[in-house]
Amino acid sequence: MTAADETRWVMDTSTFTHFCRAKREDVLQRLAPQGLILIPDSVDVEIGRGRDVGYDLPVIDSLPWVERGILTEDEETLQLLIKVDMPSKPGDPPTKNLGECAVLACATSAR
Hints:
Rossmann fold; globular
């Protein structure tokens, strides 16, 4: 991500999908700084999984006010360090909470 990303909201899967499923993504656009929302690539993958199971969710590229963020190498490292510290149960998939970790990595590195 870049320094310009500091003025945007970085959004997690749950927040984005809940607003979209309620057909109120317009609220996100109106409230977000500069009307822009950044979705980390791992969150985009999770949103895609939601579409795959039948949720009516937009494709990120179809929303001009939403941008897909690709983590920098440092952010990817931080994402994995955060993931290691996240609680998990036996049998949890290795990708569980990866989107949340990406958002935290972006927010932490933007400071």
